[in-house]
Specification:
Blueprint (H helix, E strand, L loop, with lengths): L1 H13 L7 E3 L5 E3 H6 L7 H17 L3 E7 L4 E7 L2 E2 L1 E2 L2 E3 L11 E3 L3 E2 L1 E4 L5 E5 L5 E7 L18 H7 L17 H16 L3 H26 L8 E5 L3 H12 L3 E4 L6 H8 L3 E11 L5 H19 L8 E10 L6 E5 L9 H16 L7 E11 L17 E9 L3 E9 L8 E3 L2 E4 L4 E4 L3 E5 L5 E5 L2
Parallel strand pairs: 3-13, 13-14, 20-22
Antiparallel strand pairs: 1-2, 3-4, 4-5, 4-10, 6-9, 7-8, 11-12, 14-25, 15-18, 16-17, 16-18, 19-20, 21-24, 22-23, 24-25
Helix pairs in contact: 3-8, 4-5, 4-6, 5-6, 6-7
Length: about 475
């Protein structure tokens, strides 16, 4: 990691870019180059975290209290809860799972990460019948090389992107701004050979089946993730991004009974926006296990002073007046093998605070598990998060002059079949424009389509705000 980061810095300098280099953390903050090199494991989930931070920034700008972050790329889809302006975080993670989506099959790491669920459904996920004749989509992926059949780079197995092309969600001539011409004829041949003929379907039926299977898998994972936190998906807005996220947002929203979809401008590269708005953050923990009634408060104070000093060294001397400190503790009932994170007051703690911390622990425990137990609590870890303010950067751009209407084409919509949809150039839409479906919206890195029951409004940053009717 040190070699990689040093090489990245040197390459940037050679390009004449002398700006400070910051590195994304798995918990959604950014840190210095030196800190990243000293603790490289903190970067394990930094890419997916950036997308969720971007979704949180979009939600704050729109005043949306609860959104579901939906990031679908080439190999996986990531879904996370964003509530009250920020994502949930957790302090454990499994790296290098033998079975990618099976808990317990990897290496457990004590690491602050954005709490999300990852599903093996992406644009490059390969579709094929299994040994029982059932259509399966993913987790095998064509990746970017050779990629989907449509790319013409040697891929021979049909993927979700290939299905999207056959169903009219992608335009062969304007994909990636016209730089990559898609090949629908080759896609139909591959679909016939690998999926349609074995299952007795036509190419459109095979393609719609691929999309429905992929969407059902993502919806099931989202329901499971939300149910673990006692939340109903119908109460959320869906923020869709990534190259494939907007393409599948409408179908996913329909399955989850979500009635509001948000597609920011530059949705295909929104994770990069997350890097720009993320706050500089230092997350630390010190293990000092003790029953709450036997805590050595002087040692706790010394640990917090040590963590605060390290945070100040990383964030810099100019950060003293604006840094936000958050204290918490991992607590559990004596004899248990798992903990819950409990918020702590900012002031120094002492023996007189033991009763208050017991009450706070039981309140957090009830909120997590629906009940509390009788018995004393213990503290396992003491945590400190130091954070600078993030950056408030608009995600949109100025509209381009010209007619935004590109014409019409037939598009397959779940629950409706093929419909003639109006095609719109997102870069030419004006703020305040209101439209109804069926409609397709195209930009360089992504595309999205909404059915006839949808009402779409373009806000001041060219974000698409979609009300999905019943």
């Amino acid at each position: 990691m040190t070699r990689y980061l040093d090489s990245l810095r040197d390459d940037l300098l050679a390009m004449g870019i002398d700006a400070p280099l910051r590195v994304m953390l798995s918990g959604g903050g950014v840190t210095t180059l030196a800190d990243a090199k000293e603790f490289p494991f903190r970067l394990l989930e930094s890419g997916p975290a950036a997308g969720t931070i971007a979704a949180a920034a979009v939600a704050r700008r729109l005043g949306e209290p609860d959104v579901l972050s939906f990031d679908m790329g080439g190999t996986t889809a990531k879904i996370a809860i964003v509530s009250g302006g920020g994502p949930r975080r957790r302090h454990d993670f499994e790296a290098g799972r033998v079975d990618k989506f099976k808990p317990g099959s990897g290496l457990p790491v004590r690491l602050t990460v954005v709490d999300m669920i990852e599903i093996g459904s992406g644009g490059g996920s390969i579709a094929a019948p299994d040994s029982l004749g059932l259509l399966k989509v993913g987790p095998r992926s064509a990746g970017s090389v050779p990629g989907p059949v449509a790319y013409g780079r040697g891929g021979e197995r049909p993927t979700v992107t290939d299905a999207d092309l056959v169903l009219g969600h992608l335009d062969p001539a304007t994909f990636l701004g016209g730089e990559l011409r898609l090949r629908p004829a080759e896609v139909r041949k591959a679909l016939d050979r690998e999926v349609a003929e074995p299952l007795g379907l036509d190419p459109v039926g095979a393609a719609s089946g691929i999309v429905e299977v992929a969407t059902a898998g993502m919806a099931a994972a989202a329901r499971m993730h939300l149910s673990e936190h006692g939340r109903d998906p119908a109460g959320f807005a869906l923020v869709a991004f990534g190259g494939a996220g907007p393409v599948h947002a409408y179908g996913l929203a329909k399955q989850l009974k979500i009635t509001r979809i948000v597609v920011p401008m530059r949705a295909g590269v929104l994770s990069a926006y997350g890097f720009l708005v993320a706050p500089a953050t230092v997350d630390q923990a010190r293990s000092l296990p003790s029953a709450l009634t036997e805590v050595d408060w002087e040692r706790v104070a010394a640990r917090y002073a040590e963590m605060a000093e390290h945070a100040g060294a990383v964030l810099g001397p100019d950060a003293t007046d604006v840094v936000r400190l958050r204290r918490s503790a991992d607590m559990r009932y004596l004899g248990q093998g798992f903990e819950v994170e409990v918020e702590l007051p900012d002031a120094d703690l002492g023996p007189a605070d033991a009763g208050r911390l017991q009450d706070a622990f039981e309140e957090t425990y009830r909120a997590t598990f629906g009940r509390s137990l009788d018995g004393p609590a213990e503290v396992v870890n003491w945590r400190l998060s130091a954070q600078l303010p993030g950056h408030d950067i608009p995600v949109g751009c100025e509209p381009v002059d010209g007619d935004p209407r590109r014409g019409t084409r037939d598009v397959w919509f779940p629950g409706h079949g093929r419909l003639a949809a109006t095609v719109w150039d997102r870069y030419r839409l004006r703020p305040g424009t209101e439209l109804t479906g069926p409609a397709v919206f195209e930009e360089r890195e992504s595309s999205c389509a909404f059915g006839p029951e949808c009402r779409i409004r373009v806000d001041g940053e060219l974000t698409l705000l979609v009300d999905v009717g019943r």
